[in-house]
């Protein structure tokens, strides 16, 4: 069970939608938001779940919380069928939606937390310990008596993350937890999540458009597109799938015509500096040697492929199919 703490097997979600096709006419159509997804996440793993807008990420998370019932397939979280036993599952999971808050808008954070204490029937000692930990690690001390509506987005997000953890869940779903946050708030949230996962072994499923979140937090990433899983593996492996390229930036002694060497193509020439693209999967050494042998080289550097470009290319390639 531990190796498939979260398990999806051929999961589908189809929405019936009515579309207006004329002044009085409406047409019934179906949207396959999730189209046969299978994956397993072992206990204690922190996994990124990414994809373009409308790919089916939120729908998957809603099925994992039990808010939505799958149209087909099987979902299990901590051995529980979420849609059937949503209340029982609630004790095991915490959910944070970056775009909306679970806190009471007009109440200070402290009062929201007190309400959750009672709603979730959290034992007093656990509540106190978790509260103390979150307040310290998320730097909430000075914010506890401020009404939620007066908090900045970053402060509110930290407040929301604490709220999701007061009942000590084993699983945390995060849907865009860093959206709209400034650089410092993002760093605080990421540090906290990293510690939470390392120290408490909380299993984390993270949905985000910010690939830095993934690069800094997740070894494994799943990519979903049009309701299907198109990649599940190490973040590094995405480069191979996306056929990404590295860039060799060379500074020559003087301005010269585009460099000609096998295995690379010149992307740009700017005075004595030239940018050469070569496949990320091959070593830079022979290329550097070839350039150095034939051209008056002053300096050089190698730039790693940009993961965002890799993923953008993956999406583009698939939609061209
Ligand atoms: N309640 C609903 N009724 C009808 N269609 C829906 C419903 N919820 C989602 N959809 C559709 O299902 C598809 C997947 O939506 P979903 O919100 O899961 O995508 P997402 O990957 O989370 O996107 P985003 O990154 O924009 O949040 C979209 O085409 C969306 O319009």
From TrEMBL:
GO molecular function: ATP binding
InterPro entries membership: AAA+_ATPase, ABC_transporter-like_ATP-bd, ABC_transporter_ATP-binding, P-loop_NTPase
Pfam families to which the protein is assigned, alphabetical: ABC_tran
ABC transporter domain segment(s): 12-251
Transmembrane segments: none
Superkingdom of the source species: Bacteria
Keywords from the named record: Antibiotic resistance, ATP-binding, Nucleotide-binding, Transport
Bilayer topology: Peripheral membrane protein
Protein name per its UniProtKB record: ATP-binding cassette domain-containing protein
Record lineage: Bacteria, Bacillati, Actinomycetota, Actinomycetes, Kitasatosporales
